## 1
Amino acid sequence: MAETPTRGRAETEVATDDDRSSDVVFDRVADLPRARVDPPGDASFALCLTHDVDRPFKGIRSLYYALQERPTHHLRTAVSGDNPYWQFEEIMALEDQLGVRSAFYFLNEQHLLADRPAREWLSPANWVQHLGRYDVTGDGIAGVIRDLDSGGWEVGLHGSYHSADEPKRLREEKATLEDVLDGPIAGGRQHYLRLSVPETWRYHRAIGLEYDASLGSSTGCGFHAGYDPIRPFGDDFLVFPLTIMEQALPDPDSQPCGARQTCERLLTEAAENGAVMTVLWHPRYFSDREFPGYRTLYRWLIERARELGAWIGPPRALQAALEGDSDGSHRAETDPAEFRFTQVKS
């Protein structure tokens, strides 16, 4: 893979997910139309901040982790009822202090027993996922969603594991989240970066989403899909490729210099090329006790980006700026004919 890709070009490759070893296909994107970005104002590049809300409750999963690593710590978490994964207020306070906003993508995962076929009930991996499932309509999560929205953060959709190939499910998840938010959502990212390209993007556009941020890798950092957002259909629908997922970085606790050097290299590359750089920090990684070093690195990343002259914010705000729609009211046109209930392979 080229270290410094030609603008708008990308290699064909397959990225694998660390947790489930499921393939995420970077289908041929080199020849797709691009949204040439001139960062807002006199910014040298754009840094989009995103958070995938996978598991806001650790709970009984502590017992599962205790069998694999740091047993004393995880057992203590399970017994005490402490929940180190609930980091919403801490993230909001940190970003407020830094004067930035980000996007939070909420997951409405299916119920294993009620919604999935019986053959999937025997998989231990499926049970681990199910035990971490949360309800976006529950009082705690719903309250956070509304607080984020009222505070200027973007709330988006984290499409569930199977929804990349199940458009009916994707539409239902979007409708449920919009009911909680009491307003429209503009985009989001698929769980585990699962994509059927370009079918999943077609589903997104057909249900009224304006962008997707799923094209990326959980194992490697870089501008693998070019420096600019992609216009897969040649219209206003955008794809924001993922540049950094925190778990793909060198461990900032044991390798702090390596983690910063990787971020510095990519920030500098973004500034030199007027790029759109999108980063993902899962909320649980802001727990210093569970994932030491990641919160500090996130702060440093934002501060360093500002020193390099970056525009910083959530993808929807950048898209609105590019479309000359500063209040974010623009909505992509939806063509019902585009919504085809077909089964596609991931």
Note: DSSP finds eleven helices and eleven strands in the chain.
## 2
Amino acid sequence: MTKRKLISQRHPILYFLAVWARRLRRYSQWYSDHKKYTHKHSTEKLPFRIKKHQSVLLKKLGDSDRQLQVNKVTNLKIAAKRIDGILIRPGETFSFCKLVGLPTRRKGYLLGMELSFGEARAGIGGGICQISNLIHWLVIHSPLTVTERYHHSFDPFPDDGRVLPFGSGATVFYNYRDYQFTNNTDHTFQINLWFTDKCLEGELRIDAELDYAYHVIEKDHQFLKIDGQFYRKNEIWRDKILKFKSGQVIATELITKNFARVTYIPENYIEEKGDTPDQ
């Protein structure tokens, strides 16, 4: 059975209008939601590191055009400048889209790979989700509160050197698919981003050392084949541990359940019949 196309998919003009209608709604929210959005940067690093992570810049993504990967690095470097050193003070909300802005050719953005309507395709500024993915991984290792996050509804490429659990990232599409988190603590946090020859690197820092930390784990990971279609599922949990008491676990919470269509054939899977599970 062929899936019916959305109205916005039937003609480029309809898609353009649908996107900008959503963007205008977001602009209105930014000016009326009474949130205090982060805006202050500092070149001086806060004294304590909560978490550091690195992400490989050029990856093997099926048979995709490698030039899109090369272009992505340019896009990442432009976007990272808008975030590097950002301070998240008590009561403030971090908005990825508000900080980075609309990716355009005029700003130097190139065609990179983006995932849309069930396929991987070229788009201006494509690939900058690699930054939001990294930041989300840092944030879930902290007491910061994620208030808006989206993930892709399909998995287009087999794992190739994947380090983080499936579904632990955060996709963005300016500006109505945003990634936001709020600082509901009494501490100030800071995100720093930089590049090496092979990696995008980032860290989350804080103004005072905490006596606890978070350990994030994946559970119940499976590939499924349901009525001829492949899917992938897992759960992501985290333990809150006391750093100075031998890592004693004082709380455990489910962060997210993931379920997504897979557009490749996994090596190992479980075949089931019937409806797909609730997402």
Note: Helices lie at 12-32, 66-83, 96-100, 129-139.
